[in-house]
Amino acid sequence: MNDKWKKALIHPAMSVLEAIQTINATSLQIALVVDDEQRLLGTITDGDVRRGILRGVPLTAEVSHVLNPQPATATASTTRDARLALMRRHQFHQLPIIDSSGRVVELETIDELIQPETHQNPVLLMAGGLGKRLRPLTETRPKPLLEVGGRPILETTVRRFVEQGFSRFFMSVCYKAGMIRDHFGDGSRFGAQIEYLQEEEPLGTAGALSLLPHPLEKPLIVMNGDILTNINLQRIVTFFEAQKASALMCVRDFELQIPYGVVKTENGQFTAIEEKPMQRFFVNAGLYVVTPDVARLVQPGEQIDMPDLFHRARTKDSNVVVFPISEYWLDIGRSEDYIRANAEFTGHFS
Question: Is the pTM of this model over 0.85?
């Protein structure tokens, strides 16, 4: 994440002149007024300064005389589309991103939203599964190469990553690996660099981490190859870094209605009955970010799934966080999911 925005932070005791100098010293066209804990108190733009001067505010006055005390903000989990819509609707060029305590963690700009930042984070796409639940469709091709919207699922995923500034990929392959290699090659025709991790036998959703050919220098994004989603991947990395996390699991809100009246009791006595209650859970969305240290917790040749790796990271006192996603997401594990994906593709990916 670019830290250039930190140069725009100023203290409320600074003068209007110092605020102007801060605005002129960066290309961000804004100053963020924060307290000692970096909590946002307000923002100042050229327009705020001009309006203050017209009211007779001297340049020696404290910035509180010209700041906007209620600026529009967003959080790290706010989707890219929602941020862009907010900025376009109000013609904002900058949007402070704050955490739950009101501390500034980032400054979004309209230029960054329109043109994605280039990321050095490598991406591992899990493409070695047998796809048993999708037979007979997967008898002649691996599940990641099943077409949705006229294009292989895995190709849509690669293109989404590339569009958002990611270009370095690993693909773990096992079942019908040659077909995946033939389709993607070295990745150059997709604007990517692809290396393959060959599993001689299935190692689970985390086992391929032990096959990485060289030590990682950046946090690694790991994604199941049968997921179809239009999630903002840049936002996940931003959130991961802001939280100083060791491991991140994307989660999806899932609702389940109990089809019966649920009876509540106490000491064998009836107390109440709730008709067909709705239960809500967070479910694993099959998309993760892990630091190099967490990736190294997987032993060579070990068969292990990502949830087990997360439990292992927790025992190491790592900072393990979750990132709720609200964008379109579908796990294509069954025939009915595959049919649904093709029906919905145009509305979410055209």
Answer: no
